[in-house]
Amino acid sequence: DLALESNPSDHPRASTIFLSKSQTDVREKRKSNHINHVSPGQLTKKYSSCSTIFIDDSTVSQPNLRSTIKCVTLAIFYHIKNRDSDRSLDIFDEKSHPLTTTLFQREEVPDDYYKHDPDHKHIYRFVRTLFSAAQLTAECAIVTLVYLERLLTYAEIDICPSNWKRIVLGAILLASKVWDDQAVWNVDYCQILKDITVEDM
């Protein structure tokens, strides 16, 4: 029976999920600019090619960690913002299992926590804190997004306000163990996240 189950690696998607979800916002912005006659401004001199991709001062051979994390967290933001439904599992629920990083004060999870989408800055701060404390690489951020998209594609779950922190943490944890030669231990994440045990991790 196991041999007959489909393997996500055998049939990768032609494009990422977040790309189609972000296109709606891009089209609306372009339409708004066209209606309001907003000029796109002067074009920059840098052009991406097969060997060099520019994101600020970032290239394929020397990726800029901060810029890469911003792009990945923007993808996560679009996943949450343009989700189709709110399917989740109790193990990911923020109210049952709150995650607080050592850099932020402990806050009570509000009763309507599942109604309000996090903004991009909030997601960025959470991911940046983990990457900085665990000293993860820019490549690990890309692998994190790949695992997150695989979960959303093949599991009956959506990333939403009530579960995004635990899903992102799980994707980062898995990506760091797969990508890095010397992966961060689970106990090290317990020093970054308050009130969390190794068993919970």
TrEMBL record:
Residues 112-195 form the Cyclin N-terminal domain. GO terms for molecular function: protein kinase binding. Pfam families: Cyclin_N. Keywords: Cyclin. PANTHER family: CYCLIN Y, ISOFORM A (PTHR14248). Belongs to the cyclin family. Cyclin Y subfamily. This is Cyclin-Y-like 1.
